[in-house]
Amino acid sequence: MLRVLLLTISVLAVAHAELCKPDAQNAFKVRLSIKTALGDNAYAWDANEEYLFKAMVAFAMRRYSSKSTTQISNVLLCNMTGRVSFWFVVTDSSKNVTTVPGSEVEAAIRMNRNRINSAFLLNDKTLQFLQITSTLSPPVEPSTPVWLIIFGVVLCLIVAGIVFLIVGGIRKHKKKNKEPAERENLEEKGEVNVTVENGIPCEVLDLKAGHINGVFAADDERFTPL
Amino acid sequence: GGFLIPYIIMLIVEGMPLLYLELAVGQRMRQGSIGAWKIISPYLCGVGVASVIVSFFLSMYYNVINAWAFWYLFHSFQDPLPWATCPLNSNRTGYEEECEQTTPTQYFWYRQTLNISEALETSGGVQWEQALCLTLAWLVVYLCILRGTAATGKVVYVTASLPYCVLIIYLIRGLTLHGAVNGLIYMFTPKLEQLSNPKTWISAATQIFFSLGLGFGSLIAFASYNEPSNNCQRHAVVVSLINSTTSIFSSIVTFSITFSIYGFKATFNYESCLNKVILLLMNTFDLEEGSLTADNLSEMKEYLLARHPQEYTQLSPQLKNCSLEAELDTAVQGTGLAFIVYSEAIKNMEVPQLYSVLYFAMLLMLGIGSMLGNTAAILTPLTDTKALAARFPKEVIAGSVCFINCVIGLIFTTKAGNYWFDIFNDYAATLSLLLIVLVETIAVCYIYGIRRFEKDLHTMIGHKPNLYWKIMWAFASPLLIVSLFVFYLTDYILTGTLQYQAWDATQGQLVTKDYPGYALAVIGLLVASSTLCIPLGALLTFVRKRLKRDDVSTV
């Protein structure tokens, strides 16, 4: 009796070792970066945490296939390193000594990734399933891009400014055309004394400041010296 | 570090004497650039025309920078900043491939802003977002120049003073950044190899010309409104000293901001490079977290090489040697890199939206200020010609100039637009400005005669200029410009055909390519159209005089 028991235990152990080893079929590597994620609040990775991990994987398998046949003992961990990284497989208790296909495990973990992450206080980057790519959440995008809104506002302001200035310019122009006529009327009445020189009002003359004839200025060498 | 010395030398040898020269010419001749050179010698009427053409080219391409600044400004109102993270790829399993190869800021610049093509030849369609920003930039310029030069002066007060406030804010922020000291040390250590490269001197000279406005004809035009008895020597010295101190101050500030932000970015990149290497080693060899740090990295690398030689050698191509020097050395050249460097540094600060808005608003102010000067330089001769000014009001002339420039500027918003922009940036103004300034100096010193010029200055300000100025005008400045020319041409001849940097989307970095034939033709046209004005003008005047003489003799 004892011998049979010992034999079955050793067979099981050997079977386990064969099922769970690096790069085995349907095996996945997990890597945790607890210190990076939690800093001073980091917990140590021990046997209890491993138990929790097995429980979470079993939970994920149960939720995915919705048959409650996966037990914690079905999840095998091996090759634990100091990095905290290890390999795991999920065995199928209904069929002897086989592992659940990798695609099922992957789908189950994908579906419950959030729950698994939060159980360990980690996220997709610090709890990595190396062969399972995570679906990244897209950034929130409003329906109209923000920059177009701001562009529209600035554009309206600038166009309003241009229109305002142009209209102001046209009005000033019209006023100027009216003013000479008004001035003549006032002069007839002798009310406005505008000093006039040669028929041109002096103010206008002042605006057109005298131009120095550059040719004469530069060409003073042409005069014969005395 | 190498740029400060040529900059200061160029300022003393070229900037101040030439500023004095142009102010004196304008004040004495009392006319704009075209008229003033005609007075000095009728054969020099081409110089003024060349200045106007250079200003025209400049205004064509410069506003694109403002369009980019608008783009970045409008995108700064988001959280997180769009250039902080990579966008996701189509099936949401990772980031965009092109963005993975390079940094998110470069991806934002090359792909989402420019949507740049592989080479100059493949010019795609016009990017409507950039075209919109360019139109907006031209509308802003039109708004400011609408009312003529008098109103523009008031706008320039705002556009010139606001950047100083922002610069000071940035100086304080920049100096308090982590790693700023590295950048500042780098800035003050001169690099002798850089000093021997003529390109540094040429770009220093161009910077001086641009910042003081030499060779554009605007100084002569402004000085012509001064009274003849204005002590222009004192004014020139005072103005150029103030200008140079302000220039030096703002360049020190800009350099220290740039370099402290640079040092911050370089340190940040260096540390993330180190972290990546540490993570890679930890993951491959399953080492405990925290066992690898920056300090023991080199020893651990040797230890791992000894323990697991095979895996280590397999891994070694991915293990980059992180070096702070290499990060600091990545060249700060070109307008695109200015956008990339600053946006990368800003995204790592706290409250990045505020700093981003401040920075791009300042960039806009500076850009619009330069554009106003340029457009004024084009508009003044146009509004002075009686034919146009009588028929059209100045609003219409200004509007048509802006409209034409905007339509031409749409070239720079196509997919290959940035490559054309680089062509214009490198070749439109540099050679021509040098030549114009050289001709100006030689004309005043040797054709007009330096004794005559001395006498004119004596009548204007009451005393003759001292020996320093005369030596500068007669010998130092022309000699320096001629040597720059020689360097430039020998550089071109030695390297053979001209090359440009194209963005390779598959590798995520810049590669060097040769310019195609028609691009070289455009470059030649750019340089020739402004420089050939000078000899052409001389030829035209010669022919005209000949014809007049014939007319007179026949009578």
Automatic annotation (TrEMBL), chain B:
Keywords carried by this UniProt record: Glycoprotein, Membrane, Metal-binding, Sodium, Symport, Transmembrane, Transmembrane helix, Transport
Residues at which Na(+) binds: S211, N243, L366, S370
Segments traversing the membrane: 6-23, 43-62, 128-146, 155-181, 201-225, 237-262, 357-380, 401-421, 427-450, 471-490, 518-543
Localization of this protein: Membrane
PROSITE patterns attached to this UniProt entry: NA_NEUROTRAN_SYMP_2, NA_NEUROTRAN_SYMP_3
Membrane association type: Multi-pass membrane protein
Record-level Gene Ontology MF annotations: L-proline transmembrane transporter activity; metal ion binding; proline:sodium symporter activity
GO biological process, one term: glycine transport
GO terms under cellular component: apical plasma membrane
Main location: membrane
InterPro entries: Na/ntran_symport, Neutral_aa_SLC6, SNS_sf
Domain of life per record: Eukaryota
SUPFAM superfamilies in UniProt: SNF-like
PANTHER family: SODIUM- AND CHLORIDE-DEPENDENT TRANSPORTER XTRP3, SODIUM/CHLORIDE DEPENDENT TRANSPORTER
Protein name: Sodium-and chloride-dependent transporter XTRP3
Lineage of the organism: Eukaryota, Metazoa, Chordata, Craniata, Vertebrata
